């Protein structure tokens, strides 16, 4: 007999067994209830945005388009450029703080209702139920040997999954390539290699993650599941089982009095386990695999109603509430997160509201410090990069300031810039050497639109001249 026979597995052995055990397919039971309806509404809204927004037109172009080759990002009436990266940085920081705040307040709301993995998995599960039937029918079908009927059902399900995944990949690419042009290329079999690659790649990722891996992504691949405990405390709202009320659990007749039988309200029907998309038992306490979808709340309330017991055996609550203590909503971490979020959101709104969709870059000719003209004037040569970040053509007037009697010489008195384009303008600035107080001087180029009043910008440059003779 082995020396380890009969011994309780160590923690390391339990971890190893958990990591390397063969996956058992989870068949989530369909559930109805208020939280199921909320998840459905969130799914419809989010998928509606993802699949519908690229088709929306705004002022003659796609309403939301991240045109990477042209380095332009259209968001309704605004056009952003790589120079506007600060806005993206602020947006990402706001998103992270929002996740921290909502997690501290209400646990894994993101995972249960808005995470793409959850949303697409719900769609794939819905397709699976429509094709293969209920949970019991799916289990029965998988246990059957392969037959013509089983092959037909499985083939139909996977065909729908693949077509839906490819459409998802097509829509994903449509956020970065004008989707109307992409559709014309698709129906005429003229897709480019990169568009084809990303449609297939994202389609394959959707098919694999939502169709096959499902809860494995949440349990093993998602980093959020690992560090969420750092944002939880006893006042965080979470899905929990009321052990004091439910234990000891056990089956009984509907007409029986559980107190006379020495039982709690839990009838040990395991419905909460059957509806869980990650296959956990909520009665075992808080677990990192729980995504907070509240499916167990809906099904348990339904069971409690049938048993004529009060609802809420499994409910959204806090650890303090379960211990009979008062829950504190306003606490230091919540106040800090909310304050930072408010400040950053206000800064982002202000920055975008006061943003000038015009940029002027000054590139001084570095091949020559300065030239001296036949009239004895000191001349510097520049190349101005005018970035018209508006959605309309502009005509600009250019002036130079900062040095007395400075002359600006350009090919034309006006600078014309098409919408969303960069125009290079070579200019020369000439100054009488008597008006140069020092070899290096600051000058300012002022650019003002004649097409759109109020659109103007000023940038500083350097004007170099000869050193004074000793």
Report what the structure shows.
With 470 residues, the chain is α+β, with helices and mostly antiparallel strands. It has two domains: 19-355, no CATH class; 358-464, Sandwich (Immunoglobulin-like). Helix content is 42%, strand content 19%. The protein has helices at 11-20, 34-52, 85-106, 109-114, 116-132, 135-143, 148-174, 179-187, 193-213, 215-221, 224-227, 243-246, 271-274, 295-306, 319-322, 332-353; strands at 57-58, 61-62, 64-67, 72-75, 78-80, 238-241, 314-317, 358-364, 371-372, 378-388, 394-401, 407-410, 414-417, 421-431, 440-449, 456-464. Helix 2 (34-52) packs across helix 5 (116-132), helix 5 (116-132) crosses helix 9 and helix 7 crosses helix 9 (193-213). Residues 1-5 have low confidence and may be disordered.
Q: Quick recap of the structure?
A:
The chain is an alpha+beta fold and 470 residues long. Helices cover 42% and strands 19% of the residues. It has 16 helices and 16 strands.
Shape by Cα distribution? elongated
Which structural class matches the secondary elements?
A: alpha+beta
Q: How large a portion of the residues is in β-strands, by DSSP E?
A: 15-25%
Helix residue percentage: 40-55%
- Residue windows where pLDDT falls under 50 for at least 5 positions: 1-5
Strand runs, count:
16
Helix segment count? 16
Major sheet: 5 strands, antiparallel
- Rounded to the nearest angstrom, the radius of gyration is 33 Å
* Integer tally of domains: 2
Distance between the termini: 103 Å
What's the average pLDDT?
Answer: 91
């Amino acid at each position: 007999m082995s020396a380890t026979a009969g011994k309780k597995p160590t923690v390391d052995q339990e971890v190893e067994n958990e990591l390397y055990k063969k996956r058992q397919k989870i068949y989530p039971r369909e559930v109805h209830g208020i939280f199921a309806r909320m998840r459905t509404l969130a799914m419809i809204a989010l998928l509606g945005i993802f699949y519908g927004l690229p088709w929306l037109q705004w002022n003659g172009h796609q309403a939301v388009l991240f045109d990477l080759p042209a380095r332009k990002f259209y968001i309704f009436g605004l056009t952003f450029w790589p120079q506007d990266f600060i806005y993206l940085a602020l947006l990402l920081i706001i998103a992270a703080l929002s996740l921290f705040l909502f997690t501290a307040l209400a646990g894994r709301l993101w995972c249960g209702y808005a995470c793409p993995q959850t949303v697409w998995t719900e769609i794939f599960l819905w397709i699976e139920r429509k094709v293969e039937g209920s949970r019991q029918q799916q289990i029965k079908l998988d246990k059957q040997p392969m037959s013509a009927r089983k092959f037909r059902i499985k083939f139909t399900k996977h065909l729908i999954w693949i077509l839906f995944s490819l459409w998802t990949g097509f829509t994903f690419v449509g956020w970065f390539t004008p989707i109307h042009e992409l559709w014309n290329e698709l129906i005429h079999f003229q897709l480019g290699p990169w568009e084809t690659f990303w449609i297939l790649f994202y389609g394959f990722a959707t098919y694999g993650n939502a169709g096959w891996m499902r809860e494995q992504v949440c349990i093993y691949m998602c980093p959020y599941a690992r560090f969420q405990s750092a944002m939880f405390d006893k006042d965080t709202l979470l899905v929990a089982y009321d052990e004091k009320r439910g234990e000891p659990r056990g089956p009984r007749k509907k007409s029986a009095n559980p107190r006379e039988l020495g039982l709690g309200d839990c009838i040990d029907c395991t419905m909460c386990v059957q509806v869980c998309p990650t296959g956990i038992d909520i009665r075992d306490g808080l677990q990192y695999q729980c995504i907070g979808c509240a499916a167990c709340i809906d099904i348990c309330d339904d069971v409690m109603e049938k048993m004529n017991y009060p609802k809420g055996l499994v409910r959204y609550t806090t650890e303090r509430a379960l211990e009979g203590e008062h829950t504190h909503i306003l606490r230091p971490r919540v106040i800090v997160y909310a304050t930072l979020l408010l400040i950053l959101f206000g800064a982002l709104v202000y920055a975008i509201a006061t943003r000038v969709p015009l940029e002027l870059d000054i590139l001084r000719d570095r091949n020559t410090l300065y030239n001296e003209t036949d009239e004895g004037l000191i001349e510097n040569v520049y190349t101005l990069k005018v970035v018209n970040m508006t959605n309309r053509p502009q005509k600009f007037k250019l002036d130079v300031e900062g040095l007395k009697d400075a002359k600006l010489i350009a090919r034309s008195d006006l600078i014309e810039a098409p919408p969303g384009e960069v125009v290079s303008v070579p200019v020369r600035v000439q100054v009488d050497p008597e008006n140069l107080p020092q070899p290096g001087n600051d000058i300012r180029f002022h650019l003002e639109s004649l097409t759109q009043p109020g659109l103007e910008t000023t940038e500083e440059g350097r004007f170099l001249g000869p050193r004074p003779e000793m």
